[in-house]
Structures are given as C-alpha cells and as structure tokens.
Amino acid sequence: MSIDIMNAVTAVGESTSIRPLTGEEYLESLRDGREIWLYGERVADVTTHPAFRDTARMIARLYDALHDPTLKEVLTTATDTGSGTCSGACRSPWYGTPRHG
User: Fold this and answer.
1) How would you classify residue 22: left for phi > 0, otherwise alpha for psi between -120 and 50, otherwise beta?
2) pTM of the predicted protein model
3) 23 and which of 38, 64, 82, 92 could share a cystine (Cβ 3.0–4.6 Å)?
4) Check: CATH 1.10.3140.10 for 8-90?
5) CA–CA distance from 59 to each of 20, 40, 80, 90 (Å)?
C-alpha cells in the first residue's frame, strides 16, 4: 500500500474513512526515492540527512500530535462538509469571514 502524504486509509480494505498520517507514516512517505541534491551531492534519505532530519522529525511529531486525544481539540477542526475533522491548516482563517465594505 502506498501512503498518501495528506491522508492515510485507516485499514487496508476494511474502511474508507480517512485519518491523518502518523509520524512514522509521514517519515516513511519521505523515503519514496525522491531526488534531492544539496551542494552538488545527492541526499539518499532526507529523514536521516543532517540538513533535513530535524525538520522531518518535527513535522512527524506534529502528525503524531494529531492522534493525541488531549491535543486533538486544539489542533483539528470540523470539516465544512461534515465528513470528519482536519488539521487547522486545511482552512484559511479568511474563508467564511464576511467582507466589510
């Protein structure tokens, strides 16, 4: 099963509900053979390279936080279609704000 960077299927073939990736799933999604070059040298794995690993780990921690019940209320919001929740980043703060004119 390939991993979608934005969403992951909860169980292979069992459900069609969508949930955020876990941190490990996010890191694994970065190990897809992408071609990254830094100062003329190819980066074999961005999750372990000193220039990228800390950033990758911090983003993975954010994905893990989306699964923490104590942080879910702060980090997610209901979708406008009623199909579940998404991270706050999926909605821009100015959408739905009335214009003053």
Assistant:
1) beta
2) 0.63
3) 64
4) yes
5) 12, 26, 25, 15
